[in-house]
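Below is how a single chain appears once it has passed through the pipeline. First comes the sequence as given, then the structure the pipeline wrote out for it. We keep one example in the README because the format questions we get most often are answered faster by looking than by reading.
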Amino acid sequence: MRSQLLAARAAALFASDLPTGTRPAPTAVAAAIAASVHACGGTRGCVAVMAAAYGDYPETAAPRMRWALSVASMAPGATRPEPDRELVAA
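Resulting structure:
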């Protein structure tokens, strides 16, 4: 269940306005996630934005998702996925 929450947070960060490669403060991460979820109409909307980016810009979508997962996994209360399992945000 926690990996689903991590995936939802990462999808929201992916859809956010935060620049790829930054290490925002936890408060900025929480605000960006909340703003993305609100703007996209929920976590499914964030996943739709992410899917569209993979279709339109696959060369930049993969690095952005790696960044989003990294930032989401460092957020307070987040747990990292088990290393032998693949995390899919859908």
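The chain has a mean pLDDT of 87.

See the next section for the split statistics.
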